[in-house]
Amino acid sequence: MSSDDEFYLEDVEDDTSEFDSDTENMETEDQGEEVVRVLTYSDIREVMKEKIEEVREILEVNNGVCRVLLQKYAWDKTILLEKFYEDPNFIVNSKIALRASDSSESSNGECDICCDTAPLVGLSCNHTACKECWRAYLTEKINEKKCEIQCMASDCELIIEDDKIQEYLSSDTTVISAFQQLTVDEYVETNHFLTQCSCGMIVESSRSDAHLVVCSCGTRFCFSCGNDSHEPVNCRLLKLWEKKCVGVKNKTSAAADGYSSDKETFNWILSNTKDCPKCVTSIEKNGGCNRITCRSKTCRFEFCWLCMREWSAHGYSSCNTFNAKDEKNRVDSRAELHRFLFFYNRFKSHEQSLELEKKLFQLVKTVNVKMEEMQQKGICWADVLFLRKSVDILSECRQTLMFTYIFAFYLERNNQAIMFDGNQKDLEMAVEQLSGLLEQEMETNDLRVLIQKTQDKSRYVEYRRKVLLDHCTEGMEQDAWVYNA
């Protein structure tokens, strides 16, 4: 292979140990035995180079073109080769600039972009420009996070291959590095068995579904959506919950401007407002007249405060007749909001407790200072470390408990839901007992007593969390859960 055909992803030295680079093998792993590995960008580059080399020998084009073609088909070598064998003109029809005009053969002329007289270079489509304009164009596209860049002519769909991009950006190594980074990011994005941690490392799993993974930096997150661990609620329901919370906050913003979306605010809204029949914005009546105009700029709907009918049809006529259907709809709407608030307030309460309990980590550090003294008193090292583990268990179980209220909100009421309520209740009681024990006893001088108390309680809390999550997993496997969403 000539130097011109060298793949643009250079070897980068790092201290990462070697690994099996063929991520396609992950699909054949036993789903019951998850394999998780933490990889660097250098590792991913090696995987890409191997995949590119495999198809390059068949397609007989340079590595940069292979990279573009693989990216077009989500790095699925099988699909790419099927297309290649089906169509004799596959490469040409892919609209990639296989032969760009060589800059050494360029001639001086007026650049159509900047109107300066300079050597003009371009692609096989014969759209030319000076090198400075090509550099500016490519830099702009790379800054827009694009790694599949078309010719700068507005009506041309020809894709620029990688070696030509490097040639035009040869004086700007920073932009070239950014382009290389984009191609790796694109590979990770299209691979169902890879996800990126916030620290920049890549986590590879033999499972592509939503589950908890732990990066080498210690970060725990959902493999599917990248959010913090949110067991037992799935990614779809979590997104619905987040949208609903945003919707409620927007809905109440006009009536409760300056208030937070806490329990007191919602209770005030429920007691003092009604929903606009058209846009469902909460409205407070601020005068004696029952002719109400919605203050939403996009609505301005007029209605009667008493019967909620549109004012153009209602007018100043009497509305003393009870309409059971309309009243039921309004009651049901408010009842659903009350139900949402029940779960929302408990979710937020556990979220707040999770934040406040972070101070326990500082107390554990204070206890650690006494380790040497404690060992001299006959307390073993493992018992001392268990204090930190107890705080970790509390944090993990509190977070699980927080998300159980989202799970319960969308859960249809049946026998399985009743069993879930029981497991949730047992976990909640155990978590509160452990939290109270740690907060009340952590500063005690008798650390023997503290260690003895926390060991049993921590193990029980961890056990109750396992029981709840096992029940949820079993229900999912048996398709026993029914959601009202």
Automatic annotation (TrEMBL):
GO molecular function: ubiquitin protein ligase activity; zinc ion binding
Residues covered by the RING-type domain: 107-323
PROSITE patterns: TRIAD
Membership in a protein family: Belongs to the RBR family. Ariadne subfamily.
Organism ancestry: Eukaryota, Metazoa, Ecdysozoa, Nematoda, Chromadorea
Annotated catalysed reactions: [E2 ubiquitin-conjugating enzyme]-S-ubiquitinyl-L-cysteine + [acceptor protein]-L-lysine = [E2 ubiquitin-conjugating enzyme]-L-cysteine + [acceptor protein]-N(6)-ubiquitinyl-L-lysine
Keyword tags: Metal-binding, Repeat, Transferase, Ubl conjugation pathway, Zinc, Zinc-finger
SUPFAM superfamilies, per the entry: RING/U-box
Protein EC: 2.3.2.31
Residue span of region Disordered: 1-32
Pfam family, any one: UBA_ARI1
The organism of origin for this protein: Caenorhabditis remanei
Protein name, as recorded: RBR-type E3 ubiquitin transferase
Gene Ontology process terms (BP): protein ubiquitination
